[in-house]
Design brief:
Number of domains: 2
CATH superfamily of the largest domain: Nucleoside phosphorylase domain
Shape: globular
Number of strands: 17
Structural class: alpha/beta
CATH class of the largest domain: Alpha Beta
CATH topology of the largest domain: Rossmann fold
Strand order of the largest sheet: 10-16-15-11-17
CATH architecture of the largest domain: 3-Layer(aba) Sandwich
Number of helices: 16
Largest sheet: 5 strands, mixed, barrel
Strand content: 15-25%
Helix content: 25-40%
């Protein structure tokens, strides 16, 4: 094993070796991970420092040769890789192992800093479709700082005025960006998300931030994952009221999370109990470190809850009990109120190949008259706690097998 060190690759592309292997077919990272588990070298590479992985990413022959010498054989769900390795193995029977490596390398990805390219037998240069596996969109700079605490000093790149920060989470290539601290709302969020999705071409997108709580069973620091985002003001109509004024008759646009994405997050706790318990323990440690005053502890559970359900999205920040009551009149199942989800989800949904988009929100206030005071408590402690729980939840969910299965299907 030490003689053939493995390496996790973000993507591998294969040229056509006169086989039924289209030159533009890609092998997802999740599939690479599964193959590594098949050949028994997954454990050897999963703890390798990221810097070491980067140094050897330009040598895809390492992992491919490791697969071959470990006796990896054809698997029905990995036929593209099997075909290439089978061809290489057949030709290597009358040649040296090095010749076999060179044959595979001719078809393997040349991984560079921002894109994956390969050179086929004819020297044709092809570029990978996707710049990342996962796109993370964070509304506010203050919220983005929480992510940077988990991934300090990440490399960045820019395109069309937007700055993207490249992260690695569980071996996946991730691009993350913040929208703005000055201009918020679904329209701006949607415009930026559209640009980001077109640039990054991710398989999955996450919108991660804080929100106001609309559910009495939830408290601050709990996390809400949207099974449906409702732009409740869309299509509204002003109707005359009995007192000579007007009332709004709501209609709304509804953006459901696709079935596979929803079931993946719903099954997270049961399918990955160790990872989920690790998240709960981290949240509990973080809360204890906040040294909350006794009178403030009533606003949060000892360990956070996760709720999957409907989220209200619109341009208005909630800070009045009467307003939350009106929202419940629109949909009694609303769990949270936020201001960017509708725009980001619509950008992901409105594509030829829709991108599953998770809206994950940590609850930082109750969207009522207490909002201003809670936001100011200990210089925004509830906002930091809520964002920490949302960001770490996403981080842990990405480590789960349920998420890997979802990504393989994209």
């Amino acid at each position: 094993m030490a003689e053939f060190p493995g390496v996790i690759l973000s993507d591998l592309l294969f040229a056509d070796f006169s086989l039924d292997v289209p030159s533009n077919r890609s092998l997802s990272l999740a599939r690479v991970r599964r193959i590594l588990r098949m050949v028994g070298i997954h454990e050897a590479v999963q703890d390798m420092p990221w810097k070491e992985l980067v140094e050897v990413r330009s040598r895809p022959e390492v992992v491919l040769f490791a697969m071959r010498v470990q006796g990896w054989v054809d698997q029905p769900d990995d036929c593209e890789v099997a075909s290439v390795l089978h061809a290489a193995d057949q030709q290597s029977r009358s040649r040296s192992p090095r010749s076999s490596i060179e044959l595979i390398c001719d078809a393997a990805a040349r991984i560079e800093s921002t894109a994956v390219r390969l050179v086929d037998a004819k020297g044709k240069l092809l570029e990978r479709d996707s710049r990342c596996d996962i796109l993370i969109v964070i509304p506010l700079i203050e919220e983005f700082r929480t992510l940077l605490e988990m991934h300090p000093d990440p490399p960045h790149e820019s395109d069309d005025g937007l700055y993207y920060y490249r992260l690695e989470i569980n071996g996946y290539n991730v691009l993350a960006l913040a929208i703005s601290d000055t201009v918020v709302g679904p329209t701006v969020a949607g415009q930026i998300a559209e640009k980001a999705l077109s640039y990054a071409k991710p398989r999955v997108c996450f919108l991660v931030g804080i929100a106001g709580c609309l559910e009495e069973d939830l408290l601050l620091g709990d996390v809400v994952v949207a099974s449906e985002v409702c732009d409740f003001l869309a299509g509204s109509k002003a109707q005359p009221s009995a007192d000579g004024g007007y009332v709004l008759e709501y209609s709304g646009n509804h953006w459901p999370l696709e079935f596979a994405a929803r079931t993946a997050v719903e099954s997270f706790e049961l399918s990955a109990p160790r990872i989920h318990s690790g998240w709960l323990a981290d949240a509990a440690r973080y809360q204890r470190a906040l040294a909350l005053r006794a009178r403030d502890k009533k606003f949060a559970h000892d360990v956070p809850k996760v709720a999957v359900g409907h989220v209200a999205s619109g341009p208005t920040v909630g800070g009045a009990t009467a307003y939350t009551a009106e929202l419940h009149g629109i949909d009694r199942k609303f769990l949270a109120l936020e201001t960017e989800g509708e725009g980001v989800v619509q950008a992901g949904f409105g594509r030829v190949r829709p991108v599953p988009t998770y809206v994950v929100r940590g609850l930082s206030d109750f969207a009522d008259e207490r909002k201003k005071k809670l936001d100011g408590t200990s210089s925004g402690v509830w906002r930091r706690y809520a964002m920490h729980n949302a960001a770490t939840f996403v981080h842990k969910f990405i480590e789960s097998e349920a998420f890997a299965t979802l990504l393989e299907g994209q």
